[in-house]
Design goal:
single chain, 4-stranded antiparallel beta sheet
């Protein structure tokens, strides 16, 4: 099922193969890493970050992803948010972000 994002979002996906060690003598298996780029308003970027960074920390911890929010640039009416991790984690993070913004 596709995740329908509000119109403020413009998502672009980047997929790369990454070799991640599993430890414990198990064979290393390739893991597909997905990076989704969102374009959001300044207010939405603030909501994603949350007070003292609590919201973004919760999302990254629960979904197991890395989220990067671009610094506010003078003259720009939007910010770039990048979500990177395995496919399931990125999908979960996007759902969590959607819930924060609704």
């Amino acid at each position: 099922a596709l995740l329908t994002l509000p119109p403020v979002f413009h998502a672009r996906d980047f997929v790369a193969s990454d070799q991640l060690g599993r430890g414990g003598g198990e064979q290393d298996l390739p893991t597909t890493i997905v990076e989704t780029t969102l374009t959001v308003s300044h207010g939405d970027a603030g909501a994603i970050i949350g007070s003292g960074g609590t919201t973004i920390k919760n999302i990254t911890t629960e979904a197991g992803v890395h989220i990067n929010v671009q610094y506010r640039k003078v003259g720009k009416d939007h910010r770039i948010v990048k979500v990177k991790g395995d496919k399931a984690g990125v999908e979960r993070a996007l759902k969590m972000i959607k819930n924060v913004l609704n």
